[in-house]
Amino acid sequence: MDVKCVEIKRDGLTLRGDLRVPEGKDKCPVVIIFHGFMASRGYGEKSSMFERIADECVKRGIAAVKFDFDGHGESGGEFSDMNVYSEILDAAKIVDYVRSLPFVTDIYAAGHSQGALVGGMIAGMYREYISKLVMIAPAATLKDDALAGSLFGTPYDSYNLPEYISVTNDKGQSFKTGNLYFRIAKTLPIYETTELFTGKMLIIHGSDDQAVGVIGSRRYKERMPRAELIIVDGADHGFTGKLDFVAEKTADFLAE
């Protein structure tokens, strides 16, 4: 398997990622993998959901590309300037990059949490190019949370927003989220945009997800009945102890 480091530009920002292509394949499909809020694309760690998904897809003859969103990981920009619309702009550039690859036969999208939300919206926007979609614990309830004034359990006044709200990830790292993030989150056409997608669709969500309510995935299913919805009993938001299941189920669906 060949792994290639990739850089693309978006409005003066540098987005950094990697592309891996199955050996011996002149032509093959490619999956774009989108990471979540405060995360990164994964850099070879076997503990990374995105590394596992990429590896499983390559085993099944599917190329995999994953980038860090702006303000995350190795990509340019400040986290405090990041919002869902900026990530949609990132995703659009990534789709354009993948479309330019000479070996690509089909394009798929897969994402986790906020990356799943962005992946779903970009699949609706680019439905003529993206034929399969996997959303893993999609963070559709971030709109509900923004309206209610809550960010991962941190309360705030949604009508009198501070300049920044700090949140801490599971590694103890603190991130300053700018108030434009919340202004945008309150008005996102999440389901309206995603339901424009007409291809095959799989949703995976943990029954014990305390970060992102499973109600969001059930709403996707209600609005897009053709979607397959898998509720993983006892799984948390990061699918602790169940990453192999998620990676294999994702790769199997895309390889069908």
Layout of strands and helices, then pairs:
Elements: E1 2-10, E2 13-21, E3 28-34, H1 49-59, E4 63-67, H2 84-99, E5 104-112, H3 114-125, E6 130-136, H4 142-148, E7 150-151, E8 154-155, E9 164-168, E10 174-178, H5 179-185, H6 190-194, E11 200-206, H7 215-223, E12 228-232, H8 243-255
Parallel strand pairs: 3-4, 3-5, 5-6, 6-11, 11-12
Antiparallel strand pairs: 1-2, 2-4, 7-8, 9-10
Helix pairs in contact: 1-8, 2-3
Features:
256 residues; alpha/beta; 8-stranded mixed beta sheet; two-stranded antiparallel sheet; 31% helix; globular
Structure report:
The chain has one domain (2-140, 189-255): Alpha/Beta hydrolase fold, catalytic domain (Rossmann fold), CATH 3.40.50.1820. The chain contains eight helices and twelve strands. The protein has helices at 49-59, 84-99, 114-125, 142-148, 179-185, 190-194, 215-223, 243-255, and strands spanning 2-10, 13-21, 28-34, 63-67, 104-112, 130-136, 150-151, 154-155, 164-168, 174-178, 200-206, 228-232. The strands form three sheets. The protein has an eight-stranded mixed sheet, sandwiched between helices. The longest helix is centred in the middle third of the chain and has 16 residues, at 84-99. The chain is globular, with a radius of gyration of 17 Å. 45% of the residues are buried.
